[in-house]
Amino acid sequence: DVYKRQIKKSFTPEFRNRLDTIIQFGRLSTETIKSVVDKFLTELQAQLEDKRVQLEVSDAARGWLAEKGYDVQMGARPMARLIQDKIKRPLAEEILFGELAEHGGLVHVDLKGDELAFEFEITAAEPA
Fold first, then answer.
1. Facing residues of 86 across strands?
2. Which CATH architecture has domain 28-122?
3. Which helix (H) or strand (E) holds 48?
4. How many CA atoms lie within 13 A of 10 on its CB side?
5. Boundaries of each Clp ATPase C-terminal domain copy (predicted)?
6. What is the pLDDT of residues 34-82, one digit of tens each?
């Protein structure tokens, strides 16, 4: 087996003897990658509920996140950083200082060209 030969060539016998098992990981399917995107977006939505903000992400934007957030070498690890940079940071600015600061609202995330674009629907203040 090619992998076993490479491991034998790369690591000392002392190190190899400490291994319980060796697991080979294959490429993730497109559907699995999209599930990872949905997992991260669900976690983000849970965080936004306290701020009275709802998140609506288009299929095109989800596909873009799946494509840009997956790396053959790293798997889906870059996904968290991508969502942090492209969705969480811009939303944080709007929640703290922008349109969503006072009453929250609905955020539509869509793909415009090769970038994510945001549209905000501000929630009306509840009468006192």
1. none
2. Orthogonal Bundle (1.10)
3. helix 30-49
4. 6
5. 28-118
6. 999 999 999 999 999 999 999 999 999 999 999 999 998 888 889 999 9
